[in-house]
């Protein structure tokens, strides 16, 4: 089935970023938008809805407030609508519960008429003889006889496909090996943790592999029930320490358009290095959780009580296998500083090893630009094609740095995208956010040296965004 009208925007994927874009587009009379997602409804990290867990950004980093504080789709509007504004005020914490944030997003999704669920996009291509785009989506109820397609014509496409769980090679191989051994314990990604928790602890020994907030939350959750008569829980991370998220205010200024401009001025190899070094800016553990884990260990070990747990830093899983006789997993661990290796036996593994993004396979060949590593070559204005019609929302960390995954920066990016769609600024784009200056304005390469790029101090963020 083809839709006759030409939309201004078709969004592919409805996570927080495209949901925020949909909410900001909703009151604009000159924007005809529709958003497609293959899921039956909105869901945000359901496997990590641990009781008491909070998001790591303040409530102002909701879907819309940083672009439009008067929006009816703000987090505060949600609290008022559900009768929880005063309890949130009395609580005196800027950080919403993770389950509460998910409920808020569902509340917004239920109020938008532009979302289309149960539609899996299978192709995006250029319309013949036009800069318009055709988005082909498949509707499938599970039976081949009733599956059908819909085609949407649009001036702009916004890719909000998000990221997918990632397993390092040894653990990916362990998943396959465990499938061939009846009775072997589960090997799961943290994204599926809650649904498999009972199965994990039933093995009597769980090993958490990972460095960030998810690993810490899962370890803390499992630690509460660990004991000599229940199960043991171990935590392995290749990071040199259990590092907290860096949350000082001048560091937070790196989630700014100014720093994005600086980051983009750097060559690819330097951006790749910074991308690894800056993980502590958005992948670290909240300091409160680090302290809570220590306090829990101290409290549980008081008076000589046994706590069956081991915490290993600077330790990487370099190989893994299933021991058929015992149906246990054997992880080969390597210590980075010492260079030593040792086996580690466990009943189950939780891989809190993060997420990765790739180039969607539904994009027609030649539709978008790709970099030397085959990734989307996303311009400063978030477009990935020469015609300026394909936009990227949230997976451009390799080109835009720490602002890409930051929930608080999503509304700024949506403002830039909507300015391109409408030819005006429905939401004013703040050109300067940071007090500090990144890079060296007016700097020139040292004699005999090389330059990693420079910024034009007279080129504003707004001009770059356009």
Would you write up a description of this structure?
With 466 residues, the protein is an alpha/beta fold. It is built from 14 helices and 17 strands. Strands 1, 2, 3, 4, 5, 6 and 17 form a seven-stranded mixed β-sheet that branches. A hairpin with a 4-residue loop joins β12 (315-323) and β13. α1 crosses α13 (410-422) and α7 runs parallel beside α11 (287-301). The radius of gyration is 24 Å and the shape is globular. It starts with a strand and ends with a helix. Residues 451-466 have low confidence and may be disordered.
Q: Would you identify the regions where 5 or more consecutive residues have pLDDT less than 50?
A: 451-466
Largest sheet: 7 strands, mixed
Give the oligomeric state. single chain
Q: What percentage of residues falls in helices of 4 or more residues? A: 25-40%
